[in-house]
Amino acid sequence: MASQDWFDKDFYAVLGVSKDVTPAELKKVYRKLARKHHPDSNPGDAASEAKFKEISEANSVLSDPEQRREYDQVRAMGNGARFTAGSGGAGAGGGFEDVFGGMFNQGGQRTQFRQGGGGGFDDIFGGMFGGGGFGQTSGGYRGFGGPQKGRDMTASTTLDFQTAIVGETITLQASNGKPMKVRIPAGVHDGQKIKLRGRGEQSPDGGEAGDMVLTVAVRKHPVFELDGKNLRLDVPVTFAEATLGATIEVPTLGGDPVRLRVAPGTPSGRVLRVKGRGVHAKDGVGDLLATVQVAVPAHLNDKAREAVEALAAALPAENPREDLIARARA
Asked: Considering the entire predicted model, what is its pTM?
């Protein structure tokens, strides 16, 4: 910030606080004003945007003890004076010497500015600007761009399958050792990243807190898999059920089984749908998708074998792989 700005602007008045305001009181007042005038809360309002920049500029100076001390000293010395080049020839008012005339040998003589030795530039301004030269990182003038956002943080957690599907509020251990409650939305996937606004590190100067990026791992379920908002599972049916048709029971996640009709001649791979028994998310409800798998008996007694052989003899002679071979050749 230019020195001229420090003379012109009353940062205490901008924030509406007294000159002896404590850091805690200053932080509280700034946050209240920042929320009120933040551009996100006043879209398209140029006046609010300008006010937000003004209070951010004031806070960035007054919230830093060293800059606040420098600001108070500069304001006390000039009380509205100007750092401007003199105009109208020698003796013209309003110049640098008008502000610091008392410091530099009354009567118009100039003190030589030199580095190092006593009486030089650094000796004169050392107390006012923190002992550092202009442009240094400690003392001197710094850049101003409003309050700094806190740093983002990362975390990870592992959830049971059902917790991931239905959603739940869980407790995480923050880096500072304190517990942190986090709401997990319904239907999160393994490896999904959830951005938690404002749950990262606090700003060092009263600005917006950082975010937390939470990576979720989901334990596998022995029966169900997640597919978007749908739940999938494989359902075995007997050869007779698939051939003749049947009504079967299919499990649901966390509920009672539901009854499904298997049509006669159902092949392996056919998907039977149960509406509304998937994930209940904010953007809709998924279904339960049951994929039929025809279970072939591994062991037959003599009577069963004879029945199967009789069935094979009664069926028309056909090769179910004929079309597959023809398409492969094409």
From this structure: 0.51
